[in-house]
Model the fold of this input.
Amino acid sequence: MPVFATLLVFLLPALSPPSVAQDATVRVRLLERKAPTTVAVSAERGPVQLRVGPALLGTLAAGETATVETDRRGVTVRFRAVIETVEQVAFVPRDGADFRLRSGSIDRHYHGALTVSPDDDRGGRLQLINTVGLEDYVASVVASEYPFREIEGIKAQAVLARTYALKSRDKYDGYDLVDHVGSQVYRGIGSETEYARRAAEATYGEILTYRGAPIEAVYSSSSGGHTADNDAVWNGRPLPYLRGRHDPFDRIAPDHEWVTSVERDRLLRALSQRYGMRVTGLTVAETTREGRVRSLRLLGPQPRTFPANDVRLALNAAFGPRLLRSTFFQLHLRGDRYEFHGRGFGHGVGMSQHGAREQARQGYSYRDILAFYFDGTRLAQHDTAGPELPAYAERPRSTPVEPIPVRPVSAERTYPERPLRVGW
Done:
């Protein structure tokens, strides 16, 4: 296959977006983890209306700012000489305007509208909901989640970001998504790049479906050479399009192979605190056919077995995200230290972002990339049936005869942190 993907950034067609997608919006909760008590909202590039229900409270001219803070009766809004306490307030840009949101060290710009209300679950905090056009959301997410420049890989990421967003409709009470890795990383206009915007436009409205419904559009940084079955990592039924497979394209990933270690006593203490039991040892309980760890056994007076991904996240919360980068590892006790000899970064289910990048480098299209990682799926315009992607069996590939071993590497490798999704 000719290598042409890097040229496509200059050859993207001018698309006329279909009407089915034009009015699609998603509701994203902003700054949930920051739990702000006060925010400043400014009008950018045009006027922004302040509305309480259908009533117009006032209008901010471009550059003007209003502040909102919590109040025991709702929220208090201050702008110009106006001070109003209301149940909630909406900031609605007009005539192509955007809004700027500031809270503490956060200073970001967003498309769409903003609704501010009290957080009923956390007294004294604000709930910020950004209702934004789906394509604007996709362009921002892609730029945050996928930092590479090969356009076909970026387009694959755009389809997954859009699919994930629509699959998440009504997931929460009053909104669909959060702006961090609990959903997808979304930082508004400031994170957008030209590449991400072009990829969103080139795939306008496209989602990935299986039997007519949006798929679980999951992805991680690196598969380590073999993607994972969804049920080997998370509880739930096996999904036909999320079956593990040999991934030779992932070998370019900086975390394709790694070795880390931690003091035995520190690790056991962290697990004891996390699981509320006395842990005296750690062993592998079950592995998958390719060698990925499915479950781990915590030893002690009352031994218990837990999903490996749960233990991975618990250890990474205690020691940092680069200790146990995936569940694709071998465990060794060397003296007073536990060693992990592993592959990949993240949960390993679905698309490997580094693998997608290498496929794009080799000239594969975004359709090829999605077909490789999500076998048997179809591209569609939202809920409109589309063509089936080429079957995985039709693609040129190298099929391993034996399961991929996790080979120890000679020394600890260190790499700079990369802004990639590493999973939940």
About this structure: The first strand starts at residue 25 and ends at 30. The two ends are 35 Å apart (CA to CA). The chain has three domains: 36-124, 135-253+347-394, 258-342. The chain has a mean pLDDT of 85.
